[in-house]
Amino acid sequence: MAPALLEIAGLSKRFGGFVALDGIDLNVRPGERLGLIGPNGSGKSTLVNCICGTLHNETGSVIFDGKPINGLLAHQRTRLGLARSFQLPRPFMGLSIADNLRVPLIYTVHAREGKRFTRAEMEDHCGEFLRLVGLADKAKKFPRDLSMVEMRKLELARAMAAEPKLLIADEAMAGLSHSEVDDILALLARLSERGITIILIEHIMRAVMAFSQRVVVLVSGKKIADGLPQDVMRDPEVERAYLGQ
Amino acid sequence: MRSSVFFLIAVLVGAAVFFGARFVHNEYIFFAGFVILQFIVLATAWNILGGYTGYVNFGTAAFFAMGAYSTVFVHKLYPLPVPVLILIGGIVSGIVGFGMGYLTLRLRGAFFSIATLALAVVLQTLVVNWTFVGGSRGAYIIRPNTIPLIGNYIEYLFLIMLVLAIIAITTARIIERSQLGYGFATIRDDEVAAEASGVPTLRLKLIATTISGALMGMAGAPFPYYIGYVDPASTFGLAYAVNSIAMPMIGGTTSWIGPLIGAILLGTIQQVATVTISSAANLLIVGLLLVAFVIIAPKGIIGLVQGFRRSRSG
Amino acid sequence: MQIQLDLLVSALVAGILLGGFYAAVTVGVSISFGILDIVNIAHPAFIILGSYIAYIVNQRLGIDPIVVSIVVLPAFYALGALIYQVYHLSFEKRGQDALRGLAFFFGILFITEVGLILVFGVDYRYVEAAYIGPTLRFGIVNLPLRLLVPCVVSLALFAGLQLFLTKTFIGRAIMAVAQDQLALQLMGADPVRIKRIAFAISIATCSIAGACLIIIQPIEPSVGREYIGRIFAICVLGGLGSLPGALIAAMLLGIIESLTSTFYGPSWAPAVAFGLLLLTLALRPAGLLGR
Q1: What does the pLDDT look like over A177-194, one tens digit per residue?
Q2: Which of A221, A234, C104, C205 could bridge to A43 as Cys pair (CB 3.0-4.6 Å)?
Q3: Residues 213-232 of B with CB under 8 A from A
Q4: With an 8 Å Cβ cutoff, is A54 touching chain B?
């Protein structure tokens, strides 16, 4: 059994008097496809923020790829191979689509490997990611010219361009149509085939079931279930707290 | 075009300006020109931090005055040539910029901005209490009448400021087109997303603050020789802050051209207004223009031109 | 030793009284910045405006400055509402970056200061009132009325606002709008209107704070900028949005400033706030009652 890529132990986060996360334990194996579900406000995004360094957790440890990352800044964690997409897309509005992808290339991949792509190599890499998400023909456009679906794809592409070992997709499919959801699923599946570990945070059950090898359920800041998708779905506590809604 | 070519062109333009001014043979051009060139440097310096990264510095006067008072301090000990004083002024202001940035840039942008405003007040208090540089009564700096090679000392100061302006603009342009420039733009657009993409935002912000502060200090260093009398009330005045903000915002903050246009335009208007109306009134005009542009034309003159071009072709 | 003790006590007392005043100066920003998230750095300019209005009316008609400030209160309220409306339409609605909002308020600060210079010049102005001269004495404790009256007025203002924010419907809506605009809308209240009321209130406080200011010290147009550092220091030290925190921080600042002034000279006073601020930022950025 390969050692876990991501080990979270006893992670807690409070906002003033409000406990957003209460002693979360979670292990993710390399190459795994993990689904993370739970009602709104259960702390899923807070968990992502704590893992990625956007927020600081008060207690608990996070170990990524064998290295403890508590206290590391967000950009340092991204350079170690942890990438995420934001629930509400946050593109760089003043940069073109292609330039949006250039940023993680310059600041993550370059910095990590200490090599510098030539202009041509960068164009190639950006082009590749854009093709992967189907935005190749919009390379020179700006985020304000994109539809919602396309913005979500850009959001994923930007996370992918950081060439992560672990990608966290935070509700990337919200509000999308049936076929658009399939598009994103196919994209994530292709990434998984490349060996990238993926944590999928979603409300769309069929996507979670189709994609995940394992499902974790978060309710009111606590983990209440962790196992095979079919087992978790049948768990009475999960039904009561979440599925019944 | 490559930066080296741009630099060469800028030097040629600068030379043309300088020798053109000498040809006209009117002292006033050099006096007024010095002020406008000074504004070009200040506006460009401000924009490197404010326009590129989105962090607003209200304390331009503080950094400018640190350059000026470094000169006063050194002058009273042992007169050094102006280029050396510029280096000293730049280093002092750069260090203070770095220090203040280190303390406040980890907080929200608004905190940084307010801190810069408070910094100006505090430094003014320090200078007021420092009798060696004249305290509240100010200090007189006697400038030499002539200097070898150039002749008239004012023309020499004009030339120095011209060189500084070329350096400032070239620096801004290099940053804009470099990977550093990308990083700055991401900080301006969405700092959290930038961090998540691997951009070391604190480090970049510190770089911007230091470069910006240093350039402002360099602009301040020759000032005592130009004006002859330096006192805290005027050196730390709001005029520098409002001008260094208004000029890039009116010209356009996204490129090095904006501060240049804004400085030349606003600087000239002010020179005219000071002579025809009064100096307080001309500041009022700048303030009103700033508010007007910020509300009506937030992208500045560059934005207006781009919009005009788009509607013509589209 | 006796002389030192006297000096120390009067410095402490003056500091506490000053602190009460500083709380009134800051309470408006606690609302506009702490609750509404609007960086109104022009706040001191409105205070100085209040001071000058009190001065003019006091000079021409001999009316007590605090009375003037209360009479003029509605005008300041209206001004605040107007400015918020402009700010909202130009910036909040368009979702512009913070840069433009800051530049807007800075422009207002600047225009106000220069306008005052043009109208009143840079000479120091002061008011005449019955309580500016006398001092109450209780043993070694001196209570200059010049400091005591503004302090009492300030604390009354402060207490009044605290009651308003916690006990009335509009007050609680204001506190709520900071946290959840959507919920507010669902309850039938219009967030924009609530925010406008809150901002107008914050500007209205400047009328009273301004009158208090000119009672405590003579003013000239650039005095406003000294207060930016103080306001900021109090907000950071006391934690944003916490009125009680602001009061404690204001008192602390007042005391430290007063002690510095007494033992090292008054010309160092403006630097105290900033020094305190730097210290706080370096050691405990979340403030005294830090979140």
Answers
A1: 888 888 889 889 988 998
A2: A221
A3: none
A4: yes
